[in-house]
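Long-time lurker, finally posting.

We've been working with Anti-sigma K factor RskA C-terminal domain-containing protein (Nocardioides aquaticus) and I want a structural starting point before designing mutants. I don't trust myself to interpret raw outputs, so I'm hoping someone here can both generate the structure tokens and explain anything notable. Sequence follows.
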Amino acid sequence: MQHPDEDDLALVALGENVPQVRLHLASCAACSREVDALSATVRAARQVGPETLPPAPEMVWARVTRELDLGSPDEAPRGGRPRLLAGAAAVAAAVLVLVLALVLPGVLPDGSPPPQVTPTAALAPYGDQRVGSGEVSLDDVEGRWSLRVETQGLASPGSDFYEVWLLDPGSNRLVALGTLDPAGRADLTIPTGIRLGRYPVVDVSLEPQDGDPTHSGVSVLRGPLPL
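Top reply, 14 upvotes:
Generated this for you. Predicted structure of Anti-sigma K factor RskA C-terminal domain-containing protein:
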């Protein structure tokens, strides 16, 4: 199933009429949940007046800049569609800035700092090797996205090694992030210019020591990227 672009989902969340997207939402629970979450963000931001917002710090603007970045040429989607945000989608990004400003420490209604929540997701066995499990978490470390991977129960790789990838299941495009240590763990920095919404799957593969940087085709764990 071909899912709509994030930009089109943002337009629907803002109340725009995009017929092809609304038709898709009628049969896709995952995209419907994403639009519901975006709509809740829009509603929350519209209830806040500009006089109540503190100035957004540099980190917030840095994150928004990354999301609005057109990216590098090798990140262009297939089919030649330009990676430009429509005007309404740009407004959606501005709405997210407002909400990020609201949840900074010290600006909750009761004056207390908000809890720090790091999104996590589970990794499950994949392919012929039906053993092992894991968990991934995504965090912003000094303005760069960092992915922590912790696995358990994987078979010993012997002379081989385990590698972590981001995967776009629609096009099978992959981004190599790095390798697991002998304990089955890794803290990996996601390359600048990667739009996380286009790579919603985390893949762990078993790789031979053959000098070939491409995916071996042997995936052992997979799970969603925790956005």
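Before you design anything, note these points.
The first strand starts at residue 120 and ends at 125.
Confidence is low (pLDDT under 50) at residues 70-88, 100-108.
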